[in-house]
């Protein structure tokens, strides 16, 4: 088997180079080796693909190339052993269909209104002229939305506890001290709650127990009128016609909640950064949003073409998910002139695809207009992955992104605290802004001051 070219550097050194600056690392690899780059993990070839034709083959050739759930076991710590990422075949197909019921039809309309309300409520806590970290505020909004859409959980003790636990997970994962300790010889051992691994396992147990209790209680209540994802799963049947177990329902809830907070929050924070760094883009976007008048219907907001282009460009330039979930070559297959043997792992490199000069001229520049001028294929623009492992909540994430941005921009005069470029930081699968996007509210927008005199200034 002749493999695509790739670096011969030891794996441990490649990992350090990637962690230090993943974008410079991937840019250099694309320049040196092209559309397909091989990295060896022991005796297993891992091939990163950034050519749209090869990505199409990767996502659509399900006979020789499979999206095996066993390749996603590393995520089972916080998605459960029966989460959507770990499932295969008919079971995976059935569970995806069940989960996606929450993201369609009249539910989206009702949810749209709630997204705008929650955004206003949480933004109203920020004081005028007092700097804040936009990323943290946006994550609070997206986590609140996620808990409501996925669980239908009302505000209260359990709601607050669950929010606190999810926030604690993300803070720990991004902590420099946490990352440093886990690299030490005993850093990945469970030495109790005072060790990183022990603390994460403690958080996991708390989250799993809270969700399991909620599933139990809701199954006993048997309220068919509720319209959240948890209710869908409680009353759903599996591929054999049997109800799902409480444990399986719990595991299926985890990925959507994590995705709602982390991926959506990151994309919106990046959007706020670019919009306020480039005044012409902000001005054009505000003109489009204002054209809808006061209190616009959320379903009209999400159809705005320039808002859609801005969101897509934010997802292109720094995709929140840098790589699609891995695929496994099951039988010998030819790709781009290379014959790949069984056991080879293939990964679509979303970032490098989005940085191709032939698709996106001047790819380092933020240019929403490119999405007004051209329709990109799902193998050229793939912020949520693709194929059978495409993100279930991708459509909802974009829906949520547009409404949160439009609500904030329509109501508040915001500024970046610093004009220094925001540096991307990679953690897990997510590419987030390193400083969190520091912003300040200068006041309400002119057309909001008379109708909402007390919206801002609360602490």
Description of the molecule:
- The chain has 459 residues and is of the alpha+beta class.
- The protein has a domain at 67-321 and 383-448: Cytochrome P450 (Cytochrome p450, Orthogonal Bundle).
- 50% of the residues lie in helices and 11% in strands.
- It has 18 helices and 12 strands.
- The strands form 4 sheets. Strands 1-2-8-5-3 form a 5-stranded mixed beta sheet.
Measured as a percent range, the helix fraction is: 40-55%
What is the mean predicted local confidence, pLDDT?
A: 87
With strands numbered from the N-terminus, the spatial order across the biggest sheet is: 1-2-8-5-3
CATH architecture of the domain at 67-321 and 383-448: Orthogonal Bundle
Radius of gyration: 22 Å
Strand content: 5-15%
- Unreliable stretches (pLDDT < 50, length at least 5) are 448-459
Q: Give the class from helix and strand content and strand pairing.
A: alpha+beta
Order of helices and strands: HHEEHEHHHEHHHHHHHHHEEEEHHHEEEE
